[in-house]
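Records of this kind hold a single protein each, on a pair of labelled lines. With that in mind, the following record should read easily:
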Amino acid sequence: MQVEIITIGNELLIGQVVDTNSAWMGQQLNEEGFDVVRITSIQDTAEEITTVLSEAVKRVDVVMLTGGLGPTKDDITKDTLAAFFNSKLVFNQHAYDNMASYLKGRVKGINKLNESQAYVPECCEVINNPVGTAPVMWFDENDKIVVSMPGVPSEMKLAMTKEIIPRLQQRFKTGHIMHKTIQVCNIPEAVLAEQLEAWEATIPNYMSLAYLPSPGKIRLRLTAKTANDEQANTDFERLTSELYQLVGENIYAEEDSPIEVLLGASLKESSRTLAVAESCTGGNIAHLVTRIPGSSAYFKGGVVAYENMVKQKVLGVEEQALLNYGAVSQQVVEQMAIGVKELLQSDYAIATSGIAGPDGGTDEKPVGTVWIAIAGDFGVVSACYQFGRIRERNIQRASETGMIMLLQQLKRRSPDV
């Protein structure tokens, strides 16, 4: 069963607000077996809403809209939907009671703008919205479903999980959609695709493969549309095993989670701890690690050693190493990793030192040169990378690469691997 998502609001188109609604909705719908075929963001105009909605109902079974349901004049979705369905706005007691209940204790009285939200197209079914004043509206006409929800994420999410998805499941028989994601690093997309050409030819017809590249890594997503879970899992296992034979240690994960989540889970499972010494990443690794709930169980802390004096005085980097090789060097970054591991008494450490840019590079060490070291009971492992000229991307890539390096080392030492 196919679904289209339409998000409404000028603020989405000018970048004032980021559209997180459609991404969340698409994920939830896909997990329940619904096939999301298109996502569109449009202006707050009756013409645009009508045009896009008219096209959508010709293509799919269900259209879901968010936004434009507030009490102010720029919120025109409700009026436009009434005209689209050749209906009229009428007072709805259910919508009024819901709105009054939500506003009780929040305002002294219900004004005319609030009261206007109780008027809805006569042809729709109103669905309760306990966390807001805007009604959720369900239209069912000519075997097509159109659902209009508030743009406020918390209101939309509650309506989706409690009402909309359960209703759609009752109405439509959905197929089963399964995913398997394998994360690969340090292989360019074109090179990886060439390596996997013969492997791709063995993928069953009911499955599809997608390459999802980002700087320094690629997610390979296998999607199966089938009612036979056992067969799909068998094929997933075969394909994954064959993939390891082709790209080996470039695979660092078999689930679609950020590296900080994967590394944290590995550290927590083994009851090991981590410390970081960061120069060019400026504390970004510590930020990524600590944004995960429960990271205090495995993260000791970090040192942002931006100046050479801090590298020497706090981390114990030898002055001669800095003079002979420079801050961006194998010798220095390895000493940083060892130093922070000893300083904070952690089991493992990650250290970074590089030239993030946009200036500061030389012919020998251009912008984007980054040395990364990891230290642990395996000793010290280090590598030099050339990430490019974009500062923000260099910081992010260095942060993620350091964590991937450590995760790969932990996987090598795991008895299950």
